[in-house]
Amino acid sequence: MIARRFRLPALLAASLVAYSGVAVAQQPAASSPASAETQAGDKVLARVNGATITERDLALAAEELSDRLPAMPEAQRRDYLVGYLIDIRLGSAAAQAEKLDESAGFAGRLAYARDKVLVDEYLAKVARDAATDEAGRKLYEETIKNLTPEDEVRARHILVPDEAAAKAVAERLKKGEDFAALATELSKDPGSAKEGGDLGYFTRDRMVPEFSEIAFKLDPGKVSDPVKSQFGWHVIKVEDRRQKPVPTYEEVKDQIETFIVQRAQQEAVLALREKAKIERLDKPAGAEKGDAPASGNGAADAAKPAAPAKK
């Protein structure tokens, strides 16, 4: 592989600078914790000593365990989650029987959990309100107006381990052998060899500097002399040059939506801080207002990343 790094589409590059480093908050289902009373249409899946387990409970458990659930068929996944909820009902009843819910420690944990669920719900509402199609298209149009056209080349290469091998490749090409066939036969780049060395279109910064410097100097159809990089020795053939096309709105819609949600959640939390009277007794007086976490958005940063909530 010779690509140095991938980057965010140019469409969002300028806008993201001001808001980089902010995590997207978890978007939970807009609900309160399940109780024995079920809402109309909420299918009951099981009962544990009379306490119901419903489809809504199942959805909440699936959300909580989303990154910890192993891959399994849907039926097996549902069975696992119902079993998990049964154990929770049993364990909860056992804890209450021993009056653990009356301890000071439990009250504190419950208050913390309630606050955490509420802030997740608040940030989910902020996301729903912000992530409209109108807002997304407006950001798209504003951003593409400021795009600087970027040059791209489409090139093939043959990667070999040493200079002698690269010179031998160059000689065979000068004698008229097909570049793609030689790449398939000789190239040590596993990603492109099977494609006849084809790397597709790329901008200058997508490749290591030694490779890009030569590739962007060649005219279409021309073949380079051997070029050394950290990956070995390359012989490069440029197939085409063009200006990078602007991505369509649909192509970057998800990234735009994520950015809008990140920005809205950050601004919402910072606005709450600005309006509040915050007293940090662990810090000198007067340090409270500007003493946000490193990213400026403690609540949103602490939440688990997820896609914005849909209306």
Automatic annotation (TrEMBL):
Coiled coil: none
Region called Disordered, residue ranges: 280-311
Keywords from the UniProt entry: Isomerase, Rotamase, Signal
Known catalytic reactions: [protein]-peptidylproline (omega=180) = [protein]-peptidylproline (omega=0)
Comp. bias intervals (Low complexity): 292-311
Enzyme class: isomerase
GO molecular function, one term: peptidyl-prolyl cis-trans isomerase activity
PROSITE patterns: PPIC_PPIASE_1, PPIC_PPIASE_2
Stated family: Belongs to the PpiC/parvulin rotamase family.
Cited PANTHER family: PEPTIDYL-PROLYL CIS-TRANS ISOMERASE HP_0175-RELATED, PEPTIDYLPROLYL ISOMERASE
Protein name: Parvulin-like PPIase
Taxonomic source organism: Pseudochelatococcus lubricantis
